[in-house]
Amino acid sequence: MPAHAVALWLQIERQKQYRSRDFIKLVLDSFDEMREGEGAARKLTTENMGHKCCSKQKVKKGLWSPEEDEKLLKHITTHGHGSWSSVPKLAGLQRCGKSCRLRWINYLRPDLRRGSFSEEEEQIIIDCHRILGNR
Fold first, then answer.
1. What are the DSSP calls for 104-134, one per residue?
2. Residue 72 exposed, middle or buried by CB count within 10 Å (0-12, 13-18, 19+)
3. Residue 68 contacts by C-beta under 8 Å, 6 or more apart in sequence?
4. In this structure, what CATH number is given to the domain that contains residue 90?
5. 50 by DSSP, 3-state: which?
6. In the predicted model, is pLDDT for residue 104 greater than 90?
7. b or e along 73-112 (b: 16 or more beta carbons within 10 Å of the residue's beta carbon)?
């Protein structure tokens, strides 16, 4: 393992700042220090993290309303999704394309199965775990 990676890991372990903005800043600062010697074209900052479409326009964040779900469902069932970055605008939503894609895939798809596994599915999972373990 490279020396700078070990040093960064030790610094992280000492500070124990997982899941905080300070931790992200610490990591980015460390990478900036490493890249300065390489003549980095741009600095990594916490401001330019995130999806580019979200920074261009004001997008709604947080819980989805039933009205938004209905708009997305209606748009995709009639027109298909095509390019996910264009879906929010075409569907009349103030959401990021990534948010729409995840909402569709994880909650709104008609072929999404909910509920418990069948006995057969449960047995397949157990057999695969017996063969593969916790990989």
1. IIIII-TT---SPPPHHHHHHHHHHHHHH--
2. buried
3. 93, 95
4. 1.10.10.60
5. coil
6. yes
7. bebbeeeebeebeebbeebebebbbbbbbebbeeebeeee
pLDDT for the residue numbered 44: 46
CA dist list (Å): 52 to 9, 48, 86, 92: 29, 8, 13, 19
Count how many domains the chain has: 2
* Matching residue, tokens 């569907």: 91
Structure-token match 């372990």, residue found: 13
Structure tokens at 84: 């996910």
Q: For residues 67 and 109, state if they share a domain.
A: yes
- Mean pLDDT taken over the chain: 78
